[in-house]
Amino acid sequence: MVILSFIVGVAAIQKEGSMEGFDLRILVLILLTLNMLGFLIYLYARFSTLRMAGMELWAGGHLALVVCFFGVLLNIESPNPPLLFLIVIFLLTTHTLWLSASRSFFHKERLDPLLVFLPAFMVVAFAVCAVTPLALNWIEEDTLFRTGYILLFITCAFYQLAIAKEFICYRSPRLFTSVFVGCTFAVVAVISILSAIIVPESLSSLRVSSTTYPIATLTLVSFIQIIFMLGLMLISAERLQCRLNGLAQNDPLTGLLNRSGFMSQSEIAIKSRRKNDKICAIMAFDLNHFKLINETYGHSTGDDFLIAFTHCLTENTRATDILARFGGEDFIVLCVDVDHTSAKNTAKRISNSMAALTVQSSTGENLSITVSVGMAMIDDDRPDLNLYLETANKALYDAKASGRNKIVMAEHSSHFSVLI
User: Fold this and answer.
1) Do residue 222 and residue 287 come from a single domain?
2) Closest CA to 122 of 158, 174, 146
3) pLDDT at 27 over 50
4) What is the count of structural domains for the chain?
């Protein structure tokens, strides 16, 4: 990742080399292999069944680093200033791709291209424009080299801190993971900043110092890069697990909770409700003559009614209420912290709203449907939800037996009162 610590020094390593040069080549080969592996892993994550957003950009960044490290190997064997310039370009390309990838990975809007590429363009422009004054001896080589060295490190630190911010600010299912990955980028940024601060005054000293600590720096960077790759995969796995949990606890057609999700969230909501004089209400809904709609107009029209009723529920309930579809035309709503009056009013609003809706069939007819409602009030601190669901369903059956389009309140398990 941060290979700048030895880029300026590889030009000073001669072909005959020493033990340090041999060790440096081994580490460069290790990082080259590691980044090629990262390139293949991210491509797989993007184009396999996982379909993770932004992975093609992460892969592109690793591919740019592979080219970068390959150039470093060539530069160690035969120092070449133009090749060193290409290494710097590929390194900046990696940072721009990874910054864009971090935005895409977290499904954020793309940054203005000018903001993404301007810092890298400034470094490249500086290197290009410096050729003329250097050739005309308007500026000393030491000063020019030192200025470019500092500018390059500061630019990379800017990108690294921007990427760290994206990870630290992301609220992952497990906050520690994203913060940890963000901190690894922040550590790399600190290394870059320190490298710019403690740069030697002269070119000869700069080259000497650059050849003395690349092995330790590369070892640290390789360790950080492995941590980052594992962290990114862990975040992806956590997000995939959340999606799978959502599929397991949500109805695919309406997006509401299914029975399993409803039971799980209801228990949590009831336990955490405020301790006051208010109670909970559980409501069971059934779309009247829904089977006839399916048989007469087809399942697509029936699905339209189910979706329309879902919208009706969400528009007439609170954000804290728990909505679920148990199957077919059976829906359940749990209202936490309500009294009898507000619970009855909620049921009436839903019933009246659904009766006023019309759905167009495949033949162009405007159709409407009504709902029957069964209600049960929960006043226990630790209720048996299955028992109250059964009570609400008994009230629902009583509403349907009373002529449908009714709201029936269960005063206890064997006595019901018709509200409307």
Assistant:
1) no
2) 158
3) yes
4) 2
**pLDDT tier at 324, thresholds 50, 70, 90:** very high
| Residue where a domain stops, chosen among 207, 224, 248 | 248
187-242 confidence digits (pLDDT tens): 878 877 877 777 655 544 444 444 444 445 555 556 666 666 777 777 777 767 76
Q: Are residue 96 and residue 123 in the same domain, yes or no?
A: yes
Distance CA 282, CA 377 (A): 6
Give the pairing of strands 407-412 and 371-378: parallel
Q: How many CB atoms lie within 10 A of CB 72?
A: 24
250 bridge partner residues: 257
Tell me the CATH number at 106: 1.20.1070
Domain coverage including residue 365? 259-418
Cα–Cα distance measured from residue 288 to residue 363, given in angstroms and rounded to the nearest whole number: 21
Position 21 scores a pLDDT of 42
Neighbours of 325 (CB within 10 A): 25
Beta-carbon contacts of residue 332 (< 8 Å; ≥ 6 apart): 262, 282, 283, 284, 285, 323, 324, 325, 326, 389, 392
320 closest CA partner among 254, 264, 375, 273? 273
Please provide the DSSP assignment of 14-33 as one string. -TT--HHHHHHHHHHHHHHH
Of the CA atoms within 13 Å of residue 418, those in its CB half-sphere come to 12
Residue ending a domain, choose from 248, 270, 304: 248
Are residues 242 and 279 both part of a single domain? no
What end-to-end distance do the CA atoms of the chain give, in Å?
70
- Is residue 149 domain-shared with residue 288, that is, in the same domain? no
Q: Indicate whether 27 belongs to any domain.
A: yes
- Residue 246 burial (CB count, 10 A): 13
Residue 20's pLDDT band (cuts 50, 70, 90):
very low
Model confidence over 251-266: pLDDT tens digits? Answer: 888 889 988 888 888 8
Give residue 200's pLDDT: 57
Q: Which residue has the higher pLDDT, 106 or 159?
A: 159
pTM more than 0.70? no
pLDDT of residue 7 exceeding 70, the answer is no
Residue 253 lies in a domain: no
220 token code pair:
């640290």
Instruction: Let me know: does 228 contact 94? Beta carbons within 8 Å.
Output: no
User: Is residue 254 situated within a structural domain?
Assistant: no
pLDDT attached to residue 225: 66
Tokens of 147: 């200025």
